[in-house]
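pls design
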């Protein structure tokens, strides 16, 4: 047993809060504060405090499982790995490499995400790989690349927020999703700044705002355009900035001017005086920011919606300047790093594009393969899941639970059940793992080394505090063993630092350049912001002195476009993919609650968290409840064109009368994602989780 505390990071959201782990007599660990880490300064939410509960043997998987006689039964590692290798090899032989699919997760470390992308493309030779981070911030990423030439969720650190003059927070309830981050906004207001929150619900975050705008779900694009219209009409455009640092303003301006305030009020339900007040609060200070989250992004027009908010920042000179800019609040623990290093369908390590010949040559050289042997881009996440059982016959799945988390979830469950072969690597027996032919139990955050990249673009080092239980292996071990069984004996080391060293080389010169980052630096510096290129030096002393410091703040001198100018992208409002009608007259929106995380596969196994959030609910306005004849706690059925979910009523004036809300953490009859619409954004391929048409019915007991 170690005698001292081990500094590490929370396994949950993209804040990646710092924590210390201290050993306990029973062989486990306890969480204690780590005040030196600047993101949370020791503060933790209930999920972080209770994270060690999932390490317990009674909660986690402790043995490989294989399906026998219709049931999952314990097996040896050799038996389980042989079964996986045989299933993948048979599928590849009989149906071709693209019949093998790989689906990853935003909770995987950078080393695992990198290795998984390499495994798919070199060992299996398949193009069919994506990950659940596609459902997180792909729309913001696409819009950021269009406008700035580079996507890093936040181009500035969280510590800048209290020093700006105004923040417009769009579609984020961070008081429940990222509670330790709320203090940055509290400090903003204490310093005289203002907070504008845009959300159809009066959430705990909205209660902290100086101004809360409650638009109709699916109308964030019109709202942003209406604000930009007012910026132009009121003479608040920073003409010098637009002239010197941007391109494409005239077309974007013309598109915005078609969205006059009264028209936007009719679309969104936000009054013209509120629109004008939002513009005043945003434009009067010297510095201001816009931060978006899943609300505007998880729409079939999410890329355009984020683009409209970026246009607002550009027109007012708020991007690429100190204490100002546009940023995206990444959701998953390694949602940022997870897509930078190759588990996304169209990308190679270093955030390189898979269809770029120069990128293919660079990465192929690091991997020691012919560039022409690398497959091209594959299907996006939902499209990959929708193809299961037809074009894709076998699936290797790591750290994801699409039976609960995917849109149109009941349909995706049917597609998973139709597979010829399914192998799942996870720490618990999730609802998806229960359907597998083989389940491989893997190490958790406190039992392994590895890096993650938080929502600021800060690369962090997770440290091993305890040994895993006997018989538990890491995902890196799994990929090494499977690669060997499938004929690739080199290239898949099990030591995470060795993997990271290769990742550094593969990322060198790419948009997300990690080549100047080492485990030593991460341990000494509390993380390093990418891009951080390597610096050439002839001796260790000179090299240490010349190390690149990392880049906490992007775009201060130029944007990452060929000419250094940001790009306005003209966009116009369009309706959601599914609007209410006589049969489905109400809008559904979904989200999270403070005590649960994502699909709940881990947090639903923690007693303290279950006591705080024991199950799903339907949040609705008293006027809608009265029309239905529903009282608090009555069971309600929410029905869409895709399915039906049942949960107790929670009546509140904090939601629009035309809207209901359901959290998505639970399986069973309250599974909210049974209802959601898989309509995809044409650019990001993001499904429209945040709005669909439903009807609400009372349920006879």
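designed seq:
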């Amino acid at each position: 047993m170690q005698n001292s505390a081990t500094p590490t990071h929370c396994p949950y959201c993209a804040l990646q809060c710092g924590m210390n782990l201290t050993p306990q007599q029973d062989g486990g660990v306890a969480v204690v504060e780590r005040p030196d880490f600047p993101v949370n300064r020791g503060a933790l939410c209930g999920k972080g405090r209770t994270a060690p509960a999932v390490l317990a043997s009674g909660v986690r998987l402790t043995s490989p499982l294989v399906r026998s006689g219709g049931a999952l039964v314990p097996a040896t590692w050799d038996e389980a790995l042989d079964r996986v290798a045989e299933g993948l090899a048979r599928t590849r032989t009989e149906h071709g490499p693209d019949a093998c699919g790989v689906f990853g997760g935003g909770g995987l470390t950078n080393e695992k995400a990198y290795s998984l992308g390499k495994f798919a493309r070199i060992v299996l030779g398949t193009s069919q790989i994506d990950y659940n981070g596609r459902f997180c911030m792909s729309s913001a990423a696409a819009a950021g690349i269009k406008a700035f030439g580079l996507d890093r969720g936040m181009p500035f650190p969280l510590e800048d927020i209290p020093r700006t003059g105004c923040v417009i927070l769009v579609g984020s309830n961070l008081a429940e999703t990222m509670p330790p981050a709320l203090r940055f906004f509290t400090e903003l207001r204490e310093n005289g700044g203002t907070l504008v929150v845009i959300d159809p619900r009066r959430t705990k975050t909205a209660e902290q705002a100086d101004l809360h705008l409650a638009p109709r779900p699916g109308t964030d694009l019109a709202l942003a355009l209406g604000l930009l219209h007012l910026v132009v009409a009121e003479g608040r455009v920073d003409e010098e900035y637009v002239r010197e640092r941007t391109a494409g303003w005239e077309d974007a301006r013309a598109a915005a001017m078609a969205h006059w305030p009264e028209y936007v009020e009719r679309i969104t339900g936000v009054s013209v005086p509120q629109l004008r007040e939002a513009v005043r609060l945003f434009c009067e200070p010297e510095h201001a920011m816009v931060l978006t989250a899943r609300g505007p992004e998880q729409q079939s027009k999410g890329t355009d919606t984020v683009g409209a908010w970026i246009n607002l920042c550009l027109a007012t000179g708020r991007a690429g300047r100190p204490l100002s800019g546009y940023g995206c609040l990444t959701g998953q623990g390694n949602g940022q790093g997870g897509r930078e290093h190759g588990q996304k369908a169209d990308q190679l390590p270093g955030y390189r594009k898979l269809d770029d010949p120069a990128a293919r040559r660079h990465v192929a050289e690091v991997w020691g393969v012919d560039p022409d042997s690398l497959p091209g881009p594959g299907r996006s996440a939902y499209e990959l899941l929708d193809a299961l059982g037809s074009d894709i016959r076998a699936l290797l799945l790591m750290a994801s639970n699409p039976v609960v988390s995917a849109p149109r979830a009941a349909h995706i469950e049917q597609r998973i059940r139709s597979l010829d072969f399914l192998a799942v690597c996870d720490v618990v027996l999730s609802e998806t793992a229960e359907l597998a032919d083989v389940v491989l139990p893997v190490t958790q955050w406190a039992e392994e080394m590895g890096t993650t990249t938080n929502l600021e673009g800060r690369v962090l080092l997770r440290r091993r505090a305890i040994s895993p239980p006997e018989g538990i292996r890491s995902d890196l071990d799994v990929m090494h063993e499977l690669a060997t069984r499938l004929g690739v004996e080199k290239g898949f080391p099990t030591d995470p630092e060795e993997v990271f060293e290769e990742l550094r080389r593969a990322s060198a010169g790419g948009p997300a350049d990690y080549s100047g980052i080492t485990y030593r630096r991460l341990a000494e510096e509390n993380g390093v912001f990418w891009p951080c290129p390597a610096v050439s030096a002839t001796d260790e002393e000179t090299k240490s002195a010349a190390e690149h410091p990392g880049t906490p703040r992007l775009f201060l001198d130029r944007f990452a476009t060929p000419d250094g100018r940001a790009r306005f992208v003209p966009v116009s409002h369009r309706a959601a993919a599914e609007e209410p009608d006589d049969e489905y007259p109400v809008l559904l929106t979904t989200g999270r609650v403070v005590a649960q995380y994502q699909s709940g596969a881990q947090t639903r196994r923690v007693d303290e968290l279950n006591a705080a959030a024991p199950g799903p609910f339907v949040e609705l306005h008293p006027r809608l409840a009265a029309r239905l004849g529903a009282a608090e706690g009555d069971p309600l059925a929410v029905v869409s064109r895709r399915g039906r979910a049942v949960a107790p009523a929670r009546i509140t004036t904090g939601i629009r009368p035309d809207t209901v809300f359901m959290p998505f953490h639970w399986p069973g009859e309250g599974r909210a994602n049974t209802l959601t619409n898989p309509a995809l954004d044409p650019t990001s391929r993001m499904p429209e989780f945040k709005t669909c048409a439903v009807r609400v019915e009372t349920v006879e007991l």
